Structures are given as structure tokens and as C-alpha cells.
Amino acid sequence: MLAIPAQGTTGLYHLAIVYPTQAALGDALERLISADIPLGGSADHGVSEALYLRDPDGNGVELYWDRPNEQWPRDANGNLAMYTRLLNLEKVLEARSAAHVG
After folding, report:
1. What is the pTM of this model?
2. What is the 3-state secondary structure of the chain?
3. Residue 64 domain flag
4. pLDDT means per 10 residues in the chain (102 residues)?
């Protein structure tokens, strides 16, 4: 059964925006930091790295990049083994810096 959104709400769970590289996600993170926009959270899912925040209306926004398929975690049988771990934000920012060098 579908739940009907409360009156005055969008019913939107969240908006997700995919970035092409970790460096591009790092650039977005740097811009959020510079603009004093707080993160609601962040996560490393094995297959992707994500930043979570809220828009001015309180809707969830996810900014993420997908790791290349060959880097996805797999179990001993070759099955996808996604997880949710704390994202190393410094590593994401370092990827941005490395991409801007040279």
C-alpha cells in the first residue's frame, strides 16, 4: 500500500545527485564547507561514497559518486557485499586536491 504524503509535503524521500569521480565529490564537499552548509551525515557503502544534507525545505539531498564496478566489495563467492561505514571526508578532500594538481 502506498502511503499518502502529509498535506503540505512533497512526499519526496530524497534527491540524489551523482558525481563522476571522487574528486568531483570532494569539490562539492569543499563548496559545502566554504558555504557553512552542514552535513547531516556521510557514508562509505563500498560501491559508493555519499554525503547527506537537507535543502532549505528540509528535503533530504544525497551527493555521491559510484566507485568503478571492479572496486566493488565482493564476498568469497563473488557476490556483492555492500556495507555502510564512516566516510573518510579527508580522503575525499584529498582526491579533490590531487585532481587539481598539475
Report:
1. 0.84
2. CCCCCCCCCCCCCEEEEEECCHHHHHHHHHHHHHCCCCCCEEEECCCEEEEEEECCCCCEEEEEEECCHHHCCECCCCCECCCCECCCHHHHHHHHHHHCCC
3. yes
4. 66 88 97 96 98 89 97 96 97 89 46
CATH at residue 84: 3.10.180.10
Polymer length in residues for the chain: 102
Q: Is residue 56 part of a domain?
A: yes
Q: Write down the pLDDT at residue 98.
A: 85
Cα–Cα distance for residue pair 100/47, rounded to 1 Å: 24
- Neighbouring residues of 42: CB distance < 8 A, sequence distance ≥ 6: 49, 50, 51, 52, 86, 87, 89
- Number of domains within the chain: 1
Asked whether residue 9 is assigned to any structural domain, the reply reads: no
